[in-house]
Design brief:
- This protein has 364 residues and is an alpha/beta fold.
- Helix content is 38%, strand content 24%.
- It has two domains: 150 residues, Ribonuclease H-like superfamily/Ribonuclease H (Nucleotidyltransferase, domain 5), CATH 3.30.420.10; 200 residues, Rossmann fold, CATH 3.40.50.1240.
- Strands 10-9-11-8-12-13 form a six-stranded mixed β-sheet. A five-stranded mixed β-sheet has the order 3-2-1-4-5, sandwiched between helices.
- A hairpin with a 5-residue loop joins strand 12 and strand 13.
- Helix 6 packs parallel to helix 7.
- It is elongated and about 70 Å long.
Length: 364
Amino acid sequence: MKVVVEADGGSRGNPGPAGYGAVVRDAATGAVLAERSAGLGVATNNVAEYQGLIAGLRAAAELGASVVDVRMDSKLVVEQMSGRWQVKHPSMQPLAREAREVAGAFDRVAYEWIPRERNKDADRLANAAMDEQAGIVRTVDKPGTSSAEHMTPSSWSGAVGEPTRLYLLRHGQTELSVERRYSGRGNPPLTEVGRRQAEAAAERLAKIGGVTAVVSSPLDRAWQTARAVARSAGVEATAHDGLIETDFGAWEGLTFAEAAERDPELHRRWLGDPSVPTPGGESFDQVHRRVRKARDEVLARHGGGTVVVVSHVTPIKSLVRMGLDVGPSLLFRLHLDLASLSVVEFYPDGHASVRLVNDISHLD
């Protein structure tokens, strides 16, 4: 997939309060695929522009892009990343190295300087990030009047602090998933297709970079997937029992139709009431509680980091549900493909942001 990254950064004082913005567009249609922005505290224009580039490249990697055209109105960043200018300033050198590392995961990256008026969307995001950081909310008045601004103690979203980003990866294919059978506490291994899916997901996550931990369900199908990701990311995988799939009890290994035929009334109630357990197994409410506990433990241990969580359908849906702060009906309305990727950020003040759901572009 080919995308265009438009990036910008700014500083009010140079150095002063700084922020960046980045937009990722489909190269063919121009449609916006992703936006990134953040305040940086006190920094220079050049630092903010590099941070915008890095954020845009990481967003492109999350989308599974292979070819990237970068467009910026920073002559310095474009020339340095193109290799025509040396990176002499000590504060720029680590940022240039980081940008090259992220860019190195793509098949091709090209850099183009554009005038500021053609970079308005990234500039808007950078300024909005600086406003939010300063607690400034800008409002547009009626036509013919000037814009106004005022101070507010909270940001637009209300989120405070550095989020922990969770990449939620469903395991690859097994024989039971091929046959569409309930697969909970059973332990089938990945098929050959499943192993290829795990490697494809691992390659994509390696492009994103910055992974600080891989936490997985201990069941073989998830653990095999997690080890592939951990190898590519250069970190160790750890297991957490709280991320195991629903215990389907006596329905383990049955198809939907077989379970409904075996226990028609119970199966009907189970589909409509999350407090109803499977025969000899768990209810969705029970799964939600243990997954919430597992999430809290992951956030406490890896707060502010980027964590790949390798798990199963119900635990991943539960984590997305927590991110959206919605009820259990999501369990029946959200589809998750094998080896799909979803992204949820959890903030230390309790806020959350769902950034991606059921993406399988890495399996093309």
